[in-house]
Amino acid sequence: MTEAFKVTTRPKIVVIGGGSGQPVILRGLKQYDTDLTAVITVADDGGSSGTLRDYLNMVPPGDIRNVMAVLSSLPQEIIDIFQYRFRKEDEMLANHALGNLIIAAMAEKERDIFTGVQTLAKVMDVQGHVYPVADEPLVLHATFSDGTTLSGEAEITAAHKRIDSIWVTPQDDSTNEVAQAPSEVINAILNADVIVLGPGSLFTSVLPNLMVPNVAEALKATRAKVVYIANIMTQKGETDDFSDADHLRAINRHVGDNVVDAVIMNTGVVPEDYIDWKKWNEVSHQVTFDPEEVRQEGAVPVLGDLLELRDDGAFHNGDIVAQLIMQIANSPEI
Length: 334
Known about the structure:
Layout: E1 12-17, H1 21-29, E2 35-40, H2 47-56, H3 62-71, H4 76-82, H5 98-110, H6 113-123, E3 129-132, E4 138-144, E5 149-151, H7 153-159, E6 163-170, H8 183-190, E7 194-197, H9 202-210, H10 213-221, E8 225-229, E9 233-235, H11 244-255, E10 262-266, E11 283-286, H12 291-296, E12 300-304, E13 307-310, E14 313-316, H13 318-330
Parallel strand pairs: 1-2, 1-7, 2-3, 7-8, 8-10, 10-12
Antiparallel strand pairs: 4-5, 4-6, 9-11, 13-14
C-alpha cells in the first residue's frame, strides 16, 4: 500500500453486485488493508449455475465461486482446479465448473447455503467475507418500456428490450413471503465505512441485490459512504443510451431514496475500432460521461481513466478503481 492511501483504521468495505465486474474490484481492493465483504446476487439462472439451481433448489453458485477464487489466499494451482470447467463433451458434467459442484456439496452437507459458503470460505482461506444476498434462490422479474413483463434473469437478458423496472421474489413464492437477506448481510451494510455498488449489468447484477427489501432499508439507514462504479459500456436492452446519471437515477428510483453519495466515472475513451462487437454482443456503446448531471442527482463525481482494453473489449482497471475507492474512504468531503 502506498503512503497516499494509508488509513489510521481498517476501513470496512462492502462490495455489492455480481457477474464479472465484482471480482475485478475485489481483486484491486485485496491489495489494501481493509475488512472486505462481498454481497452477491442469487438471481442468476443461466449456465452451470442455473442447472444446479434447478436440480438442487439452491442459490446459483457461479458468482459466489468467482468471488471466493479472487479472495482466496490458497496457491494459484489450487484456485485453478477450483475454477476448472468440464468440457462440453463430458455429458453429465458438461460445462460445470468444479467450484460450483463443491459449493453445491457444501450447501447440501450443511443443509444451508449460507453456512456452507462460510465453511468453504474457511477451507479456502478467503480474506474477507462472502455473503449470498439471500439464503434461497431469487427470481428476477422485469417490466419493459413497452409494458410487457418477463421473469428469469436469462430470459430478461436475452430479450434485449429496454427495462423500466425490476423486482425479485423467492423461488418458492407459495407462502407469499418476501425475500430477506441474512442478518450478516444487513449488519455488514449498517456497520460499513464504504459500500460499493457495481460495476456490472445494472438491472440483472446490481439492482437485484437492492430489491431485497431489508437490503434497501439498510442502504437508507447506513452511515457508510455509498459509491456507484459507473459502467464503461451500455448494455443492449438494459441501458441503451444511458448516461452515468441515468444509471444513478435508476438505482435511487428503485431503492426509493437518493442513497448514492459518489459515482466513480471513467474519463478514458474507447477507440471506435477496438471492440469486437460479435464477441461482446451484449454491449452497445460507451456510457455518456456527464459529471454535472451526476452532481444534480446529489452525488459527487470521482473521475479517472478507468479503462483497460483487453480481449477486444473495454473493462475497468481494478487497481485504479480500488485506488479511487480508498481515496473516497479517506476523504472528509464525501
